[in-house]
Amino acid sequence: MYQTLKHKPLAEVRAAIRAGQYCSHTAGLGKGFLQANLAIMPEAYALDFMRYCQRNPKPCPLSGVSDTGNPMMTTMGGQIDIRTDVPAYNIYRDGRLAGSVTDIRDLWQDDFVAFALGCSFTFEHALQQAGIALWHIDNDKTVPMYRSGIDTVPAGPFRGKMVVSMRAIPEDRVAEAVEISRRFPLAHGAPVHWGDPAGLGITDLARPDWGDPVPVPEGHVPVFWACGVTPQVALEAASMPICITHKPGHMLISDIPEDAEVPILRPQDQHTSQTQQGETHDTHA
């Protein structure tokens, strides 16, 4: 199904996810639109988390925030229901991973606030358009992600190491990859490191903390970008009674163009969102 959805418009991709027909990674899907990481938590923690994102914009580029208790992400898309429109969710209780699900309607609370944070999958489309192959997309795998030795700036109970994602880039095209990704600040922008992974405190590329291991062929260089799994590490540290994230690699695909400098929808899209907000909320009440 992945190979089929790679060539389908966003509406069909989202419909398949919402129906529970597609529950895998979203790399290479919804081309042309901003993908986002997800963090959902009780409102009592939301202001500190927003401060954490503001202080760590590289791994936590804040793209959208829901209204308290409203599952419709009106600033991310005209029809996005955050409870159903992500392929898979991780559930954390008291800072520990309690399981993964494909639908969180039964878990939704009236005090929940949902945060969307930009994802590196967005700039991958630009790399591919420039002719830079990405092994994990070509082989239907999830990009490898690692806990680095870089500390983030804490805010309230949120703190931890930066997570980075890695892609093997031909040595003669690293500078080009840097410049291409720099154009997407909402998708982590330029890489934080390339070359020897020891410079980030990573000891074994073959053993990522999340995702799948990928080869680094001769003539290629491992290039590391800040990763939106960083907030999941901070959420674990905060030990909230409950919080919900995307399952790494399983992103929210928004209606925002991937080359947007700021996450703004057209007025007609926002009007549609507000109209459907009431309809959808009543449907699941």
Keywords summarizing the entry:
285 residues; alpha+beta; PSTPO5379-like; PSTPO5379-like fold; 2 domains; seven-stranded antiparallel sheet; four-stranded antiparallel sheet; 8 helices; 26% helix; disordered C terminus
Question: How would you describe what is shown here?
Answer:
There is one protein chain. 26% of the residues lie in helices and 24% in strands. Residues 266-285 have low confidence and may be disordered. The chain has two domains: 2-119 and 243-283, PSTPO5379-like; 121-230, PSTPO5379-like fold, CATH 3.30.2040.10. A hairpin with a 2-residue loop joins strand 3 and strand 4 (96-101). The chain is globular. The strands form two sheets. Strands 1, 2, 3, 4, 5, 10 and 11 form a seven-stranded antiparallel beta sheet that branches. The protein has a four-stranded antiparallel beta sheet with strand order 6-7-9-8, with helices on one face. It is of the alpha+beta class and 285 residues long. It is built from eight helices and eleven strands.
User: Which class best fits the helix and strand makeup?
Assistant: alpha+beta
Task: List the domain count as a whole number.
Answer: 2
Taking all residues together, what is the mean pLDDT?
88
| Biggest sheet features | 7 strands, antiparallel
**CATH superfamily caption of the largest domain:** PSTPO5379-like
The helix tally amounts to 8
Provide the CATH top-level class of the largest domain: Alpha Beta
Structural shape: globular
How many strands appear in the DSSP assignment? Answer: 11
How far do the termini sit from each other?
32 Å
CATH architectural name of the largest domain: 3-Layer(aba) Sandwich
